[in-house]
C-alpha cells in the first residue's frame, strides 16, 4: 500500500483506488499505477467484478458525477464498482 504524503491528494501521486460497494459497505483497494504487477492485479479485479455484474464508474476529482466505464483504465484515480440491482 502506498502512503500519500500529508497535504497531497491522489492527483499528486500515482496511487489509484478501486472502491467496491457490496452488502457489507465498501472495500477500498489501492494500487500504484507505476507498478506493473499492481496494475495487472487491479485490471484482473476490474475484469472479475465487471464479469460478475458490477458496473464501474470513474469518479471525477471535482465532486461531479462519475462516468460509466467498460474497460480498465489505470489512469483513472478512483473507480467505483456498484453491484447490479435486482428489480422487483
Overview of the molecule:
The N terminus is likely disordered. The longest helix has 16 residues. The chain is of the alpha+beta class. The protein has a single domain, classed as Roll (Ubiquitin-like (UB roll)). Strands 2-1-5-3-4 form a five-stranded mixed β-sheet, with helices on one face. The protein has one helix and five strands. Helix content is 18%, strand content 32%.
Spatial strand sequence of the major β-sheet: 2-1-5-3-4
Largest sheet: 5 strands, mixed
Strand content: 25-35%
**What is the helix fraction of residues, given as a range?**
10-25%
CATH C-level: Alpha Beta
The termini sit apart by 40 Å
Low-confidence stretches: 1-11
How many helical elements? 1
Main features:
88 residues; Ubiquitin-like (UB roll); 1 helix; alpha+beta; globular
Short structural description:
The chain is α+β, with helices and mostly antiparallel strands. The protein has one domain (14-82): Roll (Ubiquitin-like (UB roll)). It has one helix at residues 36-51; strands at 15-22, 25-32, 55-58, 67-69, 78-82.
What's the structural blueprint in terms of helices and strands?
Blueprint: E1 15-22, E2 25-32, H1 36-51, E3 55-58, E4 67-69, E5 78-82
Parallel strand pairs: 1-5
Antiparallel strand pairs: 1-2, 3-4, 3-5
